[in-house]
Amino acid sequence: MKEPLTVQGIVDLASAFYSSAVLFAAIDCGVFDAVRDLGADAGAAKVASSCGASPRGMRLLLDACVACGLLAKNAQGVYSNTPASATALVKGSPADLTGAIRYNRDVYPVWGRLAGLVKTGRPPEDPSAHLGGDAARTGTFAAAMYGRAMGIGRSVVPMLDLGADCRRVLDLAGGPGAYAILMAQSAPQIDKIVTVDLPAISEFAAGMVAKAGLSGKIECRAGDYRSDVYESGAYDAVTVFGALHQESPEDAAGILKRAADALRPGGRIYVLDMMTDASRTDPPFSALFAVNMALTMPNGWVFSDAELKEWLAAAGFKDAQTRAVPPPMPHWLVSALKKQTA
Fold this sequence. Notes:
By secondary structure, the chain is an alpha/beta fold. It has helices at residues 7-14, 16-28, 31-38, 44-51, 55-68, 83-88, 98-111, 114-120, 135-156, 178-186, 199-211, 249-262, 284-296, 305-315, and strands spanning 71-73, 79-81, 168-172, 192-197, 218-222, 235-241, 263-274, 317-324, 331-338.
């Protein structure tokens, strides 16, 4: 049982957004890259000049970063990245999480309208704005999702069984194409990966796939996985990564049934998502992410892995297994086999 907050804990919780805002601003201003590049010259004035910022404003931000544990500062006033910030917050590092964090930054304003969601049961803004309705917001959203998926995918894709008999993959709600790119790169025997997403997102994905030189292997198909019907028995694997948390239970069950129809007998489905245990309160991050999804999508929530396994069984799958994805994000990966025909 989780320990209740103390009075001090309540005060700390009320101001926890200060630290988040500092992190977002530091990324947006290029602080961590500048500190790396300047090295022993990374005093406040030079960091400010490198970032095109006010010396006073930058000094305040840098000291706040030190207070939050994002930077270190020596007696001479020189700032440096911590091991964690050098790993996760510098562009181009192998574990760069700045794209994933920008997603949190982008949904940050809507959290201030949580009371409205509670009163109405509806998201306080139109989700279509970032899914094609507003070209600028859609591009920003897709770019953030690409960086986020790349960070997560480097841990997830090695967990998939993409062996020699896996030649065709259907990537439902494939987003900006990051997972498909990583799968194609890790399993060169795959002949074809078909990603499916809304037209504006699929168009962005096609551009990223072209940049990766994989247009001949990855097809970015515009569609809607809530209603599309796929080639029957044509795929060896189906992936549904980070998508079902935006669907109602009824829609999720239908998506999984159509995924089963697309798989050959014995083919495997992989569902990656934030999930909770049966209590809906653990892991804590997943319980909070349920609120985040409800703020941004009409049917947004977080389901338990037990619920997912029930949907999979009803769709014609067996032997469902849950595995935790390596930190830092508390994703769970559930895989299952399509039952052999009688």
